[in-house]
Amino acid sequence: MRCLRMLVRILVLLYLAGAPALAQTLCQPNASNGYRVRISIKTALGNQAYEWNENEMFLFRATMAFAMRRYYKTETYNVDNIIVCNQTRRVSFWFVVISPENPTMLIPKADVEKAVSMSRHRINNAFLLTDRTLEFLGIYPTLAEPVNPDTPPWLIVFGVVIGAVFAGIIALLVSSLLQKRRKEKGMMEDGQDEEDRQMKGVENGINLDGIYNRGFTDDDRFTKL
Amino acid sequence: MRFPKLPNPGLDDRIPSHQELERMEKEEAGDRPKWDNKTQYMLTCVGFCVGLGNVWRFPYLCQSHGGGAFMIPFLILLVLEGIPLLHLEFAIGQRLRSGSVGVWTAINPYLTGVGIASLLVSFLVGMYYNTIIAWVMWYFFNSFQNPLPWSQCPVNANLTDLVSECARSSPVDYFWYRDTLNTSTSIGDSGGLQWWMVLCLLCAWLLLYVCCLRGIETTGKAVYVTSTLPYVVLTIFLIRGLTLKGSLDGIKFLFTPDLNELMNPSTWLDAGAQVFYSFSLAFGGLISFSSYNSVHNNCEQDAVIISIINGFTSVYAATVIYSIIGFRATERFDDCLEGNILALLNAFSLAEGNITEGNYAESLQNLNGTFPETIQSLDLKTCDLQTFLSQGVEGTGLAFIVFTEAITKMPVSPLWSILFFIMLFCLGLSTMFGSIEGTVVPLQDLNIFPKRWPKEAITGIVCLVSFIIALIFAQSSGNYWLALFDSFAGSIPLLVIAFCEMIAVVYIYGIDRFNKDIEFMIGHKPNLFWQVTWRFVSPLIVLVIFVFYFVTKVSSNVTYIAWNPSSEDFPTLEVLEYPAWIYVIIFILAGVPSLVVPGTAMFKLIRRCCRIDLKLSAMSLGHSTKNTPVQ
Q: Which of A88, A92, A222 should one mutate to test binding to chain B, selecting the residue with the greatest count of B CBs within 10 A?
């Protein structure tokens, strides 16, 4: 009986010792279902850069587990399911995700990619980084959709400017005409006969109509003369 | 001792005498427009002279011809060529109280061609110059958004990547060549009208019309803003520029003198050409503006002051531009270096901060020693600040590509963009006032339109016709047409006209009479400096520049640069030869205004001969039949 218990304990101990070793063999550089992560903290934060240590790595694994949970909509994923290896001073490392049900099975690359893409924003923010400084090599960030306003902003400014210009032209032309009318009235009072006055009146009438009716296409009006 | 001059009968009948001028001055007779005050006149002339060339041609010339050393030929030629010609135009306009056609016709009817040539050149140059203003307005309209549209590449249709044409060149290039011009690949490929360009062109011409509606009555008010605002903006940019990293490198690069360049004849040629074109001489606008002055206005002082202001503005603008270019070059250099450092860190998995700008060179050397193949495979770019600084461009490239890129790197970019394009707009518009004056007044003098037509109508017609013809520049190939106009319409004919002007005043009007006129107007005879420059030095300089220009243009193969995304060296611009039919256009642009000068003289001569023949035959008929002559 005691021998049997000891055997079971040894087997359990061997299994527990072997499991991480097994897990480690699953995570290798250029693994078929793994991704390489490259982190540039100093580039992103400059003076306020934090140091990359085991705690930060723990946060990364937790965030990845969160991403997997979110993608699969389950609560089975844990920090242990994210295995990391080959960490360098650059700060870059490889990671793989193992299935919570079967520790020997790796989650396929495509699913991991979708999970990461879905929660990319949350992962970035957990580390105060961006798509450029927290790189998942092989997963390209989807480019932001261009903001397309209904009216292009330049048309609005154009409308304002051209409205002001039209108003200016009309104001100046009208004031020119009024000035001429006043001058002619002054000359008429110096004693011209009725006929001339009528003629001038008719002329003025046509001119005024031209201005009031057609705004700036005065030019066309005059070219027809 | 009288200076030799050509015979010129009947001159006294054609021009008002000194007594008449005094009488006109006292009674303020005539309906000739007048300046409200001296400031308006000075601001208008300064605005006409100071234009886009001061901002985007002079800095480039300065930097490419030996920096500070370029000042020497520039200042020498300013004094020997610019100031005398300016004084001459001011004095003759003020004395004969007429626009360009009126002045030359009064001096001698056979010289009307000089006035007509000025009219044609003002018209052609005005057309393409206002198109540049339309481009400036387009950029101005697009500056009211954050981020600026030329700061990032647009994303392609399926949101997978940036647009290829933009990714291979740069966002500013893409915005200029694609979004603004939608340029075609050659001048023959017209590509149709671009509606947004047509709208901007319409806006530019309407704005010009509203400012020039009543001649100097309206432009005189407008110049208070358009002539002063550029200086304010330049100062703001100088202060902003000096606080940016790398600006002093730019200024140092600009002004570092290379005295060897003084031995190069093209330096002197370019300096002379720059002085000449910078003063907007031979357009007829200055003569016109000066003719609205009172008779005793001190035109000598005006000429000197305006020349000094023009020279100072060139240097000031160059300083500002190169401080910003220095900033841009430093930014590019830093980006280049950062990219290389990142590549090294990634390749060798070194910790961040291991390689910095300081130890980049030695780190690279070490790594190259140990891992040469890896370094090779990385394909690192060579980053050299001097190369980036000497990427100084001129013309539209400077304003719409280099400067706009620099603006995107500055904080609060839309504000700087708005300020910059307002400045360019004001510089261009005040020059256009002179162009319009140089077109409208000769048309009135030539009595092409009935006399009772108001000035508003004539200005409107000129603006409308110019707008319609300028629609060429709103096509896809518009940029190439504009470069064509710029090279030919605004170069050779002006030199011809300026040369003829000097010959006309000195040898046909008579320098002695001219001296007496100036003595009457400003109270003292022009001194020896003016005598020497008017009679010999300035005509000689203009002749030399003309000969060199003509020979260079005729002997060289005329080519242009085109934007072709499918060319091998893209994004470098492709060098193409003009098609054969362009030579007809070149002849119309450069040849017709130049040939109008002798052409009109010949025409008048033939007409006079015909009339004399008719008269003689009529008189002989009259003698024989004792009837009154038909004439």
A: A222
